[in-house]
Amino acid sequence: MSYVIEGQTGPWEIVVGLEVHAQVVSQSKLFSGASTTFGADPNTQVSLVDAAFPGMLPVINHECVAQAIRTGLGLKAQINLHSRFDRKNYFYADLPQGYQISQFTHPIVGTGTITIELQNGDTREIGITRLHLEQDAGKLLHDQDPTKSFVDLNRAGVALMEIVSEPDIRAPEEAGAYLRKLRQILRYLGTCDGNMEEGSMRADVNVSVRKTGEPFRTRCEIKNVNSIRFVMQAIEVEATRQIEIWENGGEVDQETRLFDPGRGETRTMRSKEDAHDYRYFPDPDLLPLVLEQAWVDELHAALPELPDPKRARFQHDYGIPFYDAGVLVAEQAVADYYENVAKGRDGRLAASWVTGELFAALNRTGTTIETSPVSADALGKMLDLIADKTINGKIAKEVFEDMVETGDSPDAIVERKGLRQVTDTGVIDSAIAAVLEKHPDKLEEYRSGKDKLFGFFVGQVMKETKGKANPALVNEALKTRLDA
Amino acid sequence: MLSRLTLTQARAGLSARKFSARELATAHLDAITRLNPALNAYITTLPAQDVLAAADAADARYAAGNPGLMDGLPIGIKDLFCTKGVRTTAASKILADFVPPYESTVTANLLREGAVFLGKTNLDEFAMGSANMSSAFGPATNPWQKASDPSVALVPGGSSGGSSAAVAAGLALAATGTDTGGSIRQPAAYCGIVGLKPTYGRCSRWGVIAYASSLDQAGPMTRSVADAGLMLQAMAGFDERDSTSSNRPVPAFHEAVGKSVKGLRVGIPAEYRAPGLPAEIQAMWDQGIAWLKDAGCEVVDVSLPHTRYGLTSYYIIAPAECSSNLARYDGIRFGTRVDAPSLDGVYEASRAAGFGPEVRNRILMGTYVLSAGYYDAYYLKAQKVRTLIRRDFEQAFENVDVLLTPTAPSAAFAQGENMNDPVQMYLNDIFTVPASLAGVPALSVPVGLDGAGLPLGLQVIGRHFDEETVLSIGGALEAAAGFTHLPAVHAGAGA
């Protein structure tokens, strides 16, 4: 079943826990009114509080607290009605206060779980240890001047949620599945955009190895890995390094490491001896964070439907398979699109059009579901045209392509191109007559028992009617005619 | 004599148009010119034209009949309050050239009520000290002198020593102070003026340079108890920018002064009768008890059993918070910067050049008590003691309305005295620190002179947010003591 790495002394199990830093979606920073927009000019989104001017004080941003609670609820976690902010003290040029305001001993969210799904269809529960709120630091720019480093404080003070998993992850694939699932939940909740390229979601990866059944061995923390692929690579590389050390009779040192994707290796960032003493203590500028259960309940009631229940509902309400439902709920916007198309229509047909023709068109035109050239309404109307037999499935593909190109409504395209399905039995009968006239030999063969040729005749009649004939009527008429 | 008035008297004079705010300001500008070189009470004085312009605006409001609570009253501002466009140093080299682009909430409130700022008063560096000796701009000097030896310069107390010296000597009608462990009350006692540390949370800390956030509280330093009430009313109020500020309504505090204190219960904490308390201070305390009995108060003995752990706890908690609060002075964004080849080098060089020895001591102590392995033994323990001390007060206030104690264990001492033994220096705070740890309001009232002719103060401590009863009792003491003595150096002398 499980993932192991074969060493010289036999198989090794890996033990992984993830600490994800997720930037909170909010208008302003955790403790100041400054804006949080990404990509602004350096030092244009900095308040006196962020720059830690003398006498400046933090004031908690309630929207950030609400976002942390929503996230906690989305992770099926315990919400702590009483939590506290602490100061984590260290000096660095990107940290104006000389301390980060974080939650050390009393986080706002306690234990929860995430259900992950693996390639083979198995699911696993990964425990969440905690979620806490903290400030992000600024950014140092080392490439602007040959001798100086510049400081950009736009990000300083932006709210982060640190989401810590239990050491429940046993394979790189599981780490990837965990991160994708977490990102999906955060996006559904609207509490973090999950954009790893822009750094709004970053992962620290704790890795250790052991022989099956052993207690945990020493772990190393790999800091700030910024893509899911790199997280998976880093785990494998780091586990292999540790196995080599153990198998050569060495000891793995507890330390903080960096992953170099170019070289495919991890290397020491700081050892345990260099570890900071952060001198955590309760921030005396802030009162304990006390929440009303009624507010938590209110936030709970207003949560959007999350991916797992939505998937189950899609299966049930629209009669689509588990796998398809998973594809459709992967992103909230796709799920919404699908549901707009499927509501009151044939759910299976809708699913096949969305995951088939629509996804292909998005791919081809370099658009996303949000910028799709075909709206859910328009696609729905097109399905209606199939349902009421105005067009058949084959013609629908042509109509759809036209919709992608022109943005016209399906009705307009059908009218413009004269694609309305032929249901006039007179027209169909004369098309059949023409076909039979052209292929007397085939007719002979059919009549002498070669039943398979029925399909040939259907094809020829459709061709004769330029694909517009109603296939059911063609079938019926042909049958009458041939078997007469 | 315009520079000897109380705020209340000056306000009445201005309202009656007996004199103008411009005349009042001019008298103070003159006094500062004459006496500040000797007293060093101000680190920075505002340009005369700015002071006079503010006074003229106040005169216009009096003429229009809509003056504010503090309108036209010239006051000093402790140089720990950030003042927009006016250099704010915290008496530290590290902020020697710092000009804030913002106004602290308390000073903004005072400006809103029409106060006229004369300048920024001297203090111990970052408010750390009890003698105003640690200022990077030189010590402020107490205008009082020993009758026997006028040549010995005395400390004005600290940390708000510039404010107390200025108010005592007539270089301001009143001044703002901040109190972390006694920094308003002890200098008020040493200089023969009134000082009120309000309840923690009464005045916003926004824009006040932090020493120890859980203890720092701004308050008035004045010539009368009623003035303290008037000025506090102008300073206080909820501020959404300070999460620890209280949203309770701000009463007209000065109206509490003069109210009958008959039937109020006054507690005398046994633990403050420390062995070694000078007989003169004990006598003054007994005198205060007698006055309050005469005024109809009921005096009862109470116990604050954890008092003796107060000073130790304070000197763990305050340095711990300061070690973190002062981390922002790193030479990167503002303040003194000494360049060095590495980032750590810039920190080391800038902070070594910027901070004086007492600040460095406290940062080191604070860093130590928060370190891994020591946190539980020091910081956590001190926080527990703090809780017990607060409980001591709460229990005492179940039976009494206020507590009466001496403000300090001695009168003002000579500059340079107590400098070799920091613990001896810290002992000055022994009577003031417990109220700070508990967050309760406490007032120092001048009640008499010792044998050397130096002022002594008594401290009235009250319940959380019950400044009014404290002021009533303070008013009764003030009335009974009739303290009208003047220091050797004052603006009226020889004029």
Automatic annotation (TrEMBL), chain A:
Q: What class of enzyme is it?
A: ligase
Tell me the protein's name.
Answer: Aspartyl/glutamyl-tRNA(Asn/Gln) amidotransferase subunit B
Question: What GO terms are given for molecular function?
Answer: ATP binding; glutaminyl-tRNA synthase (glutamine-hydrolyzing) activity
Query: What EC number(s) is this enzyme filed under?
Result: 6.3.5.-
- What is the stated purpose of this protein? Allows the formation of correctly charged Asn-tRNA(Asn) or Gln-tRNA(Gln) through the transamidation of misacylated Asp-tRNA(Asn) or Glu-tRNA(Gln) in organisms which lack either or both of asparaginyl-tRNA or glutaminyl-tRNA synthetases. The reaction takes place in the presence of glutamine and ATP through an activated phospho-Asp-tRNA(Asn) or phospho-Glu-tRNA(Gln).
**SMART domains per UniProt:** GatB_Yqey
Which InterPro entries does the annotation name? Asn/Gln-tRNA_amidoTrfase_suB/E, Asn/Gln-tRNA_Trfase_suB/E_cat, Asn/Gln_amidotransferase, Asn/Gln_tRNA_amidoTrase-B-like, GatB, GatB_C_1, GatB_Yqey_C_2, Gln-tRNA_amidoTrfase_suB_CS
| GO biological process terms on file | glutaminyl-tRNAGln biosynthesis via transamidation; translation
Q: Could you give the subunit structure recorded for this chain?
A: Heterotrimer of A, B and C subunits.
NCBIfam families the UniProt entry points to: gatB, PRK05477.1-2, PRK05477.1-4, PRK05477.1-5
Q: Which reaction does it catalyse?
A: L-glutamyl-tRNA(Gln) + L-glutamine + ATP + H2O = L-glutaminyl-tRNA(Gln) + L-glutamate + ADP + phosphate + H(+); L-aspartyl-tRNA(Asn) + L-glutamine + ATP + H2O = L-asparaginyl-tRNA(Asn) + L-glutamate + ADP + phosphate + 2 H(+)
| Gene3D superfamilies noted in UniProt | 1.10.10.410, GatB domain, N-terminal subdomain
Report the family membership: Belongs to the GatB/GatE family. GatB subfamily.
Domain Asn/Gln amidotransferase stretches:
336-482
- Tell me the keywords, alphabetical order: ATP-binding, Ligase, Nucleotide-binding, Protein biosynthesis
Q: Where does the chain cross the membrane?
A: none
Automatic annotation (TrEMBL), chain B:
Residues at the active site: K78 (charge relay system), S159 (charge relay system), S183 (acyl-ester intermediate)
The reaction(s) annotated as catalysed by this protein in its Swiss-Prot or TrEMBL entry are: L-glutamyl-tRNA(Gln) + L-glutamine + ATP + H2O = L-glutaminyl-tRNA(Gln) + L-glutamate + ADP + phosphate + H(+)
Cite the entry's keywords alphabetically: ATP-binding, Ligase, Nucleotide-binding, Protein biosynthesis
For this protein, the Enzyme Commission number is: 6.3.5.7
- Gene Ontology CC terms, in alphabetical order: glutamyl-tRNA(Gln) amidotransferase complex
Q: From the Swiss-Prot or TrEMBL record, what is one GO molecular function term? A: glutaminyl-tRNA synthase (glutamine-hydrolyzing) activity
Where do the TM regions start and end? none
> GO biological process: what's one of them?
translation
Q: Where is the Amidase domain?
A: 24-471
Query: What SUPFAM superfamilies is this protein classified in?
Result: Amidase signature (AS) enzymes
Family membership noted in the UniProt record = Belongs to the amidase family. GatA subfamily.
Subunit composition? Heterotrimer of A, B and C subunits.
Function, as annotated, reads: Allows the formation of correctly charged Gln-tRNA(Gln) through the transamidation of misacylated Glu-tRNA(Gln) in organisms which lack glutaminyl-tRNA synthetase. The reaction takes place in the presence of glutamine and ATP through an activated gamma-phospho-Glu-tRNA(Gln).
Could you tell me which NCBIfam families the record lists for this protein? Answer: gatA
Q: What is this protein called?
A: Glutamyl-tRNA(Gln) amidotransferase subunit A
Q: Which organism is it from?
A: Acetobacter garciniae
